[in-house]
Design a protein that fits this description.
Elements (H helix, E strand, L loop, with lengths): L1 H37 L12 E7 L2 E7 L6 E9 L7 E2 L3 E3 L4 E7 L4 E10 L1
Antiparallel strand pairs: 1-2, 2-6, 3-4, 3-5, 3-7
Length: 122
């Protein structure tokens, strides 16, 4: 009889020891699972910025920018001329109101190397 009691006591003690070791792991996993549903992801930014189409015809650059979004966008045309002696130009920034289209123009004396439009949402 005595050996059965010892085995039972040893089994209960081992079960309590294992439960004591596993309790922090279970609590940590439960708090992580609960935290996944409540943590809020940062809100995605609203779409903004005018859509611009730039065309180069010889030495002239024309960009049409349309702003379909509710925020005003400041657009600026940058022209890089192909010839080293030709002056590169940065046009003045123009505000494109929501639902509006603007036309930006620039030119080089000879060929245009490249042209692009930069944006600053205000």
């Amino acid at each position: 009889m005595r050996s059965t009691r010892r085995r039972t006591w040893a089994l209960v003690a081992a079960a309590v020891a294992v439960a004591g070791l596993l309790a922090p792991v279970a609590v940590s996993a439960a708090s992580r699972a609960a935290g996944e549903g409540t943590s809020s992801a940062p809100p995605s930014p609203e779409p903004s910025g005018a859509e611009c189409r730039t065309t180069v015809d010889g030495s002239r650059v024309v960009a049409h920018c349309h702003n379909p979004y509710p925020a005003t966008d400041l657009v600026q045309l940058h022209t890089e001329c192909a010839r080293w002696w030709d002056v590169d130009a940065d046009a003045e920034a123009v505000a494109v109101q929501p639902g509006r289209t603007v036309r930006l123009e620039d030119r080089c004396w000879k060929e245009v190397g490249r042209a692009w439009v930069s944006h600053r949402v205000s």
